[in-house]
Amino acid sequence: MPANYGAFDKAEWLRLEKKADDIRRLTVQTSVWGGSGHLGGAMSAIDVMTILYHRFMKLDPNDPKYEDRDRFVLSKGHAAVGYAPVLVDYGYMPIEELQIFNLTGAKIGMHLDSNKVKGVDYSTGSLGHGISLGVGAALAAKLKGKDYMTFVLCGDGEMNEGSNWEGIMSAAQFKLSNLVVMVDNNKCMIDGRVADEMNIEPLDKKFKAFNFNTYRIDGHDFSQLNAALEEAVKNAKTGDKPTAIVLDTYKGEGIDFMKDNYLWHYGSLDDEKLAQAYASLDATYKERCARAEKEGK
Ligand SMILES: Cc1ncc(C[n+]2csc(CCOP(=O)(O)OP(=O)(O)O)c2C)c(N)n1
Q1: How far apart are CA 101 and CA 110, in angstroms?
Q2: For the chain, which domains are there?
Q3: Which residue, of 53, 196, 241, 253, has the fewest CB within 10 Å?
Q4: Which pTM does this prediction carry?
Q5: pLDDT at position 41 over 90
């Protein structure tokens, strides 16, 4: 399917809100089917994955490996419980594959294997590798004269890994304007807050110092996501620097008892918590649509 770069008007904003809401619900359901999942960091990443898949990326679920497709690397591979629903919803696989998420014999596991899961270009889960994978994909495009984009999504805790900074240095060195590195800056990691474990701020200033075009935005605001990604795609054609987008997000976005709570890095929901989660998603969707109605043009 071709990327949709039509106007970002109120109808488009509301279309993305509906899609993100569907995917948030499918993510929660997937964790129930599989018995558990990395829910917190999946929920923080759903808005950016929604706008990438449903507005910016050139993809074809009927031909997952076509050469000119845009590439996506989920460097924070543990967020698969949110990424697999994006792929199933997009048409890469039937829902039945998700209904056995991470169970014995399932193709879709807790971290996605590109040899088993359609639509996944790179197996991830071991943190700190996605930027280097993205550098390889973006450099290959430049060398082959291809115009596909490469988007990499990292976690903020993941930025503790030194390998990321080697990848960032080489992206600038090779002038990879077709590479977009995004950090899901939810301020939480596996067992604490990032600032307490190993502070990575000021992240935007660091990317700038490494010679990236850098944006810092609210990662749950589709209007800001759209503006930054439009600039990044424009920059791919006219600039000679890679782009970084620091996404200020919340772990567990959309579910009140998970929001901003690192204890929900990984977990499972009993019936009572599941009912609370859905009630909270209802309220979130309502609030977000009201914002789109008010602020959309
Ligand atoms: C190399 C490596 N070390 C440790 C882990 C275990 N681990 C999984 S998630 C995680 C925390 C990551 O934090 P962050 O990147 O902030 O993820 P998010 O909060 O967005 O889920 C860790 C340490 C891993 N997957 N890979």
Answers
A1: 8
A2: 10-295 (3.40.50.970)
A3: 196
A4: 0.98
A5: yes
